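Obj.: predict assembly geometry.
Materials: sequence records (below).
Method: joint structure prediction, all chains together.
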Amino acid sequence: VVILGGGFGGLAAAKKLARHGEVTVIDKHNFQTFLPLLYQVSTAGLAADHVAYPIRGAISKFQGKFRMGSPIEIDYKNQIVKLDSSERIPYDYLVVALGSETNDFGTPGVSEFALGMKSVMEAVNIRAEIMRRFEDLCRFEDETIFNISVIGGGPTGVEMAGAMAELVRGPLANDHAHAAHHIRINLIEAGPRLLPMFSNRLSARTKKDLEKLGVKVLVNTPVSKVEWRSIELRNGEKIPSEVTVWAAGVKASTKASDLYLPTIQGRVEVENTLEVKNKNNIWAIGDCSGAKNNQGRFYPMVAPVAMQQGRFVAKQILRKEDNHPLKEFKYKDKGSMATIGRHKAVVQINKIGYSGAPAWFTWLFLHLFYLSGIRNRLSTMIDWTFNYLTFDRGNRHIMDEHN
Ligand SMILES: Cc1cc2nc3c(=O)[nH]c(=O)nc-3n(C[C@H](O)[C@H](O)[C@H](O)COP(=O)(O)OP(=O)(O)OC[C@H]3O[C@@H](n4cnc5c(N)ncnc54)[C@H](O)[C@@H]3O)c2cc1C
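Observations (raw structure tokens):
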């Protein structure tokens, strides 16, 4: 079995299949990124390497194979994947788990002037930009205001804005109070409320908690353009923004259509068995898969969907090998959560929703549980304990390509 993409879905499938056959994982990175904690890297709460886990480490436990590279062509007839290294890898079954990429929804200026949130390098760049502008403010010591804007009021935007506010109010205020008091954080959302997948009550609570931390929350505020150090809103108003983070959404990896896989609204078109339409022995899972629920809507692009689909496809492949009929994929939604800051989070499990410290501890526990590797779990626990007890953030370094 060849698996394209060693993220949440790809590795879940690999683990489940490894006892039954030869599994090769292909990824352009030699590590898996734990995307849910990326915002903590950008806000100096975690060191970058705590959210990256070597794929070879993950697959060595079950003697899987790994190739670092990117697929450039699939020979469907002869069942061979060709990589950018020119290597040709034959397969009996192919699992496409290439994830997603930033979606700018055609908004001009996003790729030039906004910072994305899809990789460790991007997270490190955001941290460096915030800290660099902070150092500028320390030098000015006048009334210059420095605006940071996060665009997108989903879980990523909310978590990012909350963590930035805590960074500014705590560690940066201790470093240089005057500069920290001149930083403003905006969270800009096009829709009528934050966290639209949560209940109205939890959305309202999230907005209130963020405002308590000093974040200016703008809802019903679509952005029409991002420019150098400013944002243009659809109503024509321009707001200054020295650092703009784009957390407004993702779209399925465009690699799938380059490989001539059938797509539907950008995602790989699949049967309800997760087999790719009109392709033999090929499956698509996770963010790049166009699987739909009973109401005909795409499954959300979240880690539990990718992991459940990864494990499910492993079983489907075994069913096919044994000439057993394939099953229909059904997602078991165990709920959603987002953290806002210390003792502030929201959890929604079906109709049950809760917030505050219990939600925050649920969030901490589950993220530690799902983080890959003992080393990453231990080092994250140490960083979090340090941050919790000292109100400090030890990772506020400027370490990017400019420094
Ligand atoms: C900032 C952020 C925060 C998030 N927070 C949460 C959260 O709190 N909870 C939650 O449930 N979900 C969250 N998500 C969504 C979740 O991370 C994704 O749904 C999940 O990662 C999807 O798994 P996947 O296996 O489909 O893709 P991924 O885990 O993204 O894996 C895709 C893999 O494919 C590789 N790849 C991509 N293109 C190529 C190529 N051309 N060649 C070779 N390899 C390639 C990538 O390197 C990657 O390793 C978040 C996403 C982001 C961006």
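Conclusions so far: DSSP finds twelve helices and 24 strands in the chain.
To do: check interface contacts against the pulldown list.
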